[in-house]
Amino acid sequence: FNFTYKPLRNVDGKVYAILHAAMDVTKQVQLQQQKDEFLGIASHELKTPVTSIKAYAQVLERMIRNDGDEKKASMVHKMDVQLNRLTGLIGDLLDVTKIQSGKMTFNPVNFDFDLAVAEIAEEMQHISARHHIHTDLQGHANVYADKERIGQVITNFLSNAIKYSADADQVDVKTYTTDNEIILSVKDFGIGISKELQHLVFDQFYRVGGQLQHTYPGLGLGLYISSEIIKSEGGRIWVESEEGQGATFYFALKR
Ligand code: ADP
């Protein structure tokens, strides 16, 4: 049982009664477990058909393109882009259930950090024609970590930088080393985050508030997953920003 006590006071501050509440915690925990389990099964079940539709869409696009019908091919390509979004959302839901049940696995390998960052920046450059992704990679070091998972964090930083700076046209990606760490920063010139809200962005489900919610789609899971990944790899993750002046997201890993 979870007990809470709340003193009730009269106008001069004297306690005249105590409110006492007891809640059955086992029931609460059970419900939470059922919810987590359902989310895990649901996202897994959604993943299978979406993966299959995606494979068909790609084959179809190639066939139509070979026939020379660019207009139809570009429509199928748009389907594929939306399917990528869907795959990403389902992947995030699956990751959250893995984190919550302690089942997120890490397969560390030794890899060239700058090279991995360069590859992802190039990939993202293809997706966003509006922004110029400028890279200054001076890390010059190898990292021993799960390359896929670290890549996921870099991709998340970059896609947020693009998403939250629709009126800007530049994103700066930097890597550098200190005595014992290798650091990545992704800087954008977009809407930024106020000082009061900065500590919330790595929380589960935290999202931009008010009107902006409809302008910027998302589930509010990317930075939560990113921070869990970086912490599991023994690193640090943080943000520096001024509202309206853009944001810089960082992570540091031991080297
Ligand atoms: P999502 O983008 O799906 O909302 P994230 O976990 O990636 O989820 O980000 C959480 C919140 O942090 C966002 O809703 C937004 O308020 C804020 N945020 C993240 N990246 C940026 C950025 N580059 N500039 C401004 N705000 C950001």
Automatic annotation (TrEMBL):
Histidine kinase domain segment(s): 41-255
Subcellular location: Membrane
Record domain PAC: where: 1-37
Domain of life: Bacteria
Full protein name: histidine kinase
Organism: Pedobacter jeongneungensis
Lineage of the organism: Bacteria, Pseudomonadati, Bacteroidota, Sphingobacteriia, Sphingobacteriales
Span covered, complete protein: 361 to 615 of 615
